[in-house]
């Protein structure tokens, strides 16, 4: 194969040389050179408009311009230094008789060809006029010689004269201003006083309208323009449709991905079980944002985050609170506690209405307690806040309701549920001062039957010392904490710690005076007949504070005892009112004795 290649190349070279020597394009006619782009014969021998015919006349060859309206002999053709064709053209004439009548004439009009590549050169020809009264156009180079006096003649004979024609023959691709195209369409450029003018041939145009500077390109047919317009318009529409489709497709993909993420979070937070709890409402984050008006009304801070007020569509006021984060280890416990809380139906237990599981940390929706916590009522939210007055009746109702709520929790299930963090801050009050036990189970997660824990959690000032020291948690742990709440409720004094704690102060008062009168808050101890009732409440509280768990009463017994105390107190108040009326005493307090009770 490699040995044959040189031979093949030699054959090809020889064929090319033979083709060159046997060119079908004559280069001379009648002694006139025919340089390209002029040509004779095959259309490949000349550019459009530059065809030359070689005619035989009297046994000789005469070159003439092709496709003209008359025979125009060619004397010389050149492309440099000026593009020019020297030809013989007939001369215009007119003949008149002595009377001034026109007897003969010729206008001199010549149609070279349709391509318009020739014109009479202004620079290479001069016009001479013979005769009188012959007009000329002002400034015309074709009539540059002024009319001069001549000798009148009566006859003249028409003849031809040599004439230089300006052409575009020498303007090639290498020349500036050449209008060309990829289809080899050449512009027609003509000499014009040392410069040249160009125009595109029929069927072609220049983009900027100046063929001297831009190539000539084919004109698009109307059908092609229509097709292009339809194609472009269709492409734009399809692109817009495709773009819109892609946009919404990506949007759907993003929405589905977000939905999958939300479902995963929901599942992590126990939705598979909680969605079957009929007493529990499941909210989305967007719904809670609307319910709370984007958390615009803060109520305070819970153990794990802020609490905000909200309003449901039925105008029920609620509190939205952050729960603790759920992990795989705590999932079962969390779900169990939500189930239990949502099913609890007691007037004195804060109702869990629903939750939002489509967030990293679940949000819990509770009923709203308008008055806030018992802690705020007793001591105020700040030191400069005036405390709300509380009658003994109100305090008894708060104590009874709180005890009944805790007793309900302890007996709710077979093993019962402990709160493990009973304190005034976890007893909420509605607008009618009805107490609601809150913040149990979910934050501390203590279920009865699990008697010991390694994680002792709660407020130390209210904590059962047995639970604190040993981790042993029983329903009596809540009883102990409630005993401190009772003392705080009737004294309105801070809990304190150590020897100055509220418990120690009450114990010393009873040891020294056999009464807790010195500890009672003045606004409920003004009436002497109320002191015995307050003492009985104090004694019940101290029973709840026994060191031995077994010596403490059950919460249901505490609630019953408080109910009996209220009934007894109301009877005493009624008898006292009757006695005071019979004695003619005012409704004020009876005579008081400042001596301690024996």
TrEMBL record:
Biased composition (Polar residues): 168-185
Residue ranges of the region described as Disordered: 168-188, 575-598
Protein kinase domain segment(s): 293-565
Signal peptide: 1-19
Major localization listed first in the record, in broad terms: membrane
InterPro entries membership: Kinase-like_dom_sf, Prot_kinase_dom, Protein_kinase_ATP_BS, Ser-Thr/Tyr_kinase_cat_dom, Ser/Thr_kinase_AS, WAK-like, WAK_GUB
GO molecular function, one term: protein serine/threonine kinase activity
Coiled-coil regions listed in the entry: 248-294
Keyword Membrane listed: yes
Recorded GO CC terms: membrane
One Pfam family per UniProt: PK_Tyr_Ser-Thr
Name assigned to this protein: Protein kinase domain-containing protein
The organism of origin for this protein: Urochloa decumbens
Lineage: Eukaryota, Viridiplantae, Streptophyta, Embryophyta, Tracheophyta
